[in-house]
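Ops channel
N.P.: pipeline sanity check, posting one input/output pair.
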């Protein structure tokens, strides 16, 4: 690869890409260290406010966390050297009591009755496309979060 061309993805398309998937990595800070944990999710809302809905066990690290988080969702095609990556930032909160949230259908369902919501405050996305070359494959990441 002679290089990888990077393209910024507009906010509306970032949310379309996140909505097209159901698995991502929720990133939290635990004991001073960042952790990225796989989660099943559903994106809901509209341009006036987007939310990411999850369901977990009340005994998990995620259930204990409240506050700033980010969700990373990617698609990588190694054979074609194409990829996209979207990061949604926001604040995680617990949901108690009856609600009308869609079920994110976690792969593990037993004991998963703690509902969580991320209120999205910013989104950023990149698309990468490689050009043929003989000296490898590299990607430069620059994060520039705009309003959600």
């Amino acid at each position: 690869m002679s290089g990888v061309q990077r393209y910024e993805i507009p906010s509306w398309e970032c949310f379309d890409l996140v909505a097209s998937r159901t698995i991502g990595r929720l990133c939290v800070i635990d004991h001073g260290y960042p952790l990225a944990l796989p989660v099943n999710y559903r994106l809901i809302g509209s341009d006036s406010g987007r939310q990411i809905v999850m369901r977990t066990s009340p005994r998990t690290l995620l259930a204990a966390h409240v506050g700033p988080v980010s969700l990373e969702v990617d698609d990588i095609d190694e054979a074609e050297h194409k990829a996209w990556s979207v990061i949604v930032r926001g604040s995680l909160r617990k949901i108690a009591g009856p609600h009308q949230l869609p079920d994110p259908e976690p792969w593990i369902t037993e004991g998963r009755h703690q509902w969580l919501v991320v209120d999205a405050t910013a989104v950023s996305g990149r698309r990468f496309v490689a050009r043929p070359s003989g000296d490898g494959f590299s990607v430069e990441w620059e994060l520039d979060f705009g309003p959600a």
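N.P.: looks fine end to end. The chain is about 10% helix and 55% strand.
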